[in-house]
Design a protein that fits this description.
Layout lengths: L7 H8 L5 E8 L4 E2 L3 E4 H4 L7 E6 L9 E6 L4 E5 L5 E7 L2 E3 L18 H4 L10 E6 L6 E3 L2 E3 L12 E7 L6 E10 L5 E10 L5 E10 L5 E11 L9 E3 L2 E6 L2 H4 L18 E7 L6 E7 L6 E7 L5 E8 L2 H4 E8 L6 H6 L4 E3 L4 E11 L2 H15 L5 E2 L8
Parallel strand pairs: 18-26
Antiparallel strand pairs: 1-2, 1-12, 3-4, 4-5, 5-6, 6-7, 7-8, 9-16, 10-11, 12-13, 13-14, 14-15, 15-25, 16-23, 16-24, 17-20, 18-19, 19-22, 20-21, 21-25, 22-23
């Protein structure tokens, strides 16, 4: 039996909104507007089919002082976003299942307390605790010093507060909630990239959509890169958990990862002194370029999936960090335009894309919470329908050396 995949047109229609949507502008630096604490509910909007609240809170104290937390709480899911941290997704909870992980970083760290160039360009790690982090858009990958500057780990977007923050709610079914933010990576003589990032959610569902559009606002052609660093811990991640994807080619990121090539599809339990193990993957896709990947627990009754288009995001990074629980027991499922090598290597290997003046690129991903065995089985069947009888090529050596 052939499994019918969701079309990109159908995905985008869920996220659309227009004249029949109520719009709430929470932040607009051009207008000097920053509402801070704010909330709206389904009752306020006259929606009776579903109960939901949308609440923005300004956090106080510690290194999260001044950070904003935007929470969508509905019948099925609770989604937490950080407008102060590039509208990253902190966590998603629903049906007794948590999407996210337990980082030693236990605050929503305000970027004003982060020095990206500290620890040799690894300062980004001082705030890293989200379910989904946008690594980009000016550059991404491991830190490197080149061109007279430090390309810090995974770029600047996640540590850039949004300059505009907008909430939209459709007036009629399916009452889609869309949160949009504008990330500006504007530097004199260097970058002039502006990215509208968004998350859309239909109350009552167990899926949500990330749709981003990056535009070169300058007069010169500029590079861009993006990795959607999507991170999962317990209860999905455990000894015997599995990663499932339609894989065309897989290779180890470095020599350490060579030791895990035979077991790349399964996970260890928390393991002291386990260094991060990374794999480079080229995924198969269907005739429309759509593909999807999944991580599931050992019993196959809890999981998380990501669907994306390989014309937008042609490569995939699998990050396995099965260290101790306190150190950070987590796996990363990471669709991207590039692998996680430094930008210098990605340029050499022709994976860095460019935007002409005024040109835009867009990315659409669908995240799914798989809360029971049937949902996991159906999602895995879709993945297997993409793989079919096509072989997976295993490359024994890293494709690059840092």
């Amino acid at each position: 039996m052939k499994v019918q995949l969701v079309s990109l047109a159908a995905i985008l229609s869920l996220a659309s909104y227009g004249a029949d949507a109520k719009e709430f502008i929470l932040t607009d630096v051009d207008k000097g507007l920053a509402k801070g604490d704010w909330s709206i509910s389904s009752e306020d909007l006259g929606v009776k089919e579903h109960k939901f609240t949308i609440k923005n809170t300004v956090l106080k104290g510690g290194k999260q002082d001044g950070s904003e937390l935007l929470t969508i709480a509905s019948d099925n899911l609770t989604i937490k976003l950080s407008p102060t941290r590039g509208l990253g997704i902190l966590s998603v909870d629903g049906a007794g299942l948590r999407l996210g992980w337990d980082s030693p970083v236990d605050e929503v760290v305000n970027p004003k307390y982060i020095n990206l160039e500290s620890r040799g360009g690894l300062g980004w790690l001082d705030g890293f605790n989200e379910l989904m982090v946008r690594c980009g858009f000016e550059w991404t990958g491991h830190a490197v010093q080149a061109d007279g500057m430090i390309y810090t780990l995974h770029g600047r977007a996640q540590n850039t507060p949004v300059s505009k923050l907008i909430v939209n709610v459709l007036d009629k079914a399916p009452y889609t909630i869309t949160v949009k933010g504008l990330i500006k990576e504007n530097t004199f003589k260097k970058s002039n990239l502006e990215t509208w990032v968004s998350l859309s959610y239909v109350p009552g569902s167990k899926d949500f959509i990330v749709h981003d559009v990056v535009t070169n606002k300058g007069d010169y052609t500029r590079d861009y890169q993006i990795i959607y660093h999507s991170n999962y811990g317990t209860p999905i991640l455990e000894e015997g958990a599995r990663f499932v994807a339609p894989v065309k080619e897989i290779s180890p990121f470095n020599d350490y990862a060579k030791n895990g090539l035979k077991t790349w599809q399964t996970y260890l339990g928390p393991t002291k002194d386990f260094d991060e193990m990374v794999f480079n993957i080229y995924p198969y896709a269907d005739d429309q370029g759509q593909t999807q990947v999944m991580v599931t627990n050992r019993a196959g009754d809890k999981g998380a999936g990501i669907s994306f288009n390989t014309s937008q995001l042609p490569v995939f990074t699998l990050w396995k960090n099965t260290d101790t629980l306190k150190q950070g027991y987590v796996t990363g499922l990471e669709p991207g335009t590039s692998f996680a090598y430094p930008v210098t290597i990605e340029r050499e290997q022709k994976r860095v894309r460019q935007l002409e003046p005024g040109q835009s690129a867009e990315f659409t991903l669908v995240y799914s919470l798989l809360s029971d065995k049937k949902a996991v089985e159906q999602y895995e069947a879709q993945i297997k329908s993409i793989q079919g009888d096509k072989e997976t090529k295993v490359v024994e050596q890293p494709i690059a050396k840092e």
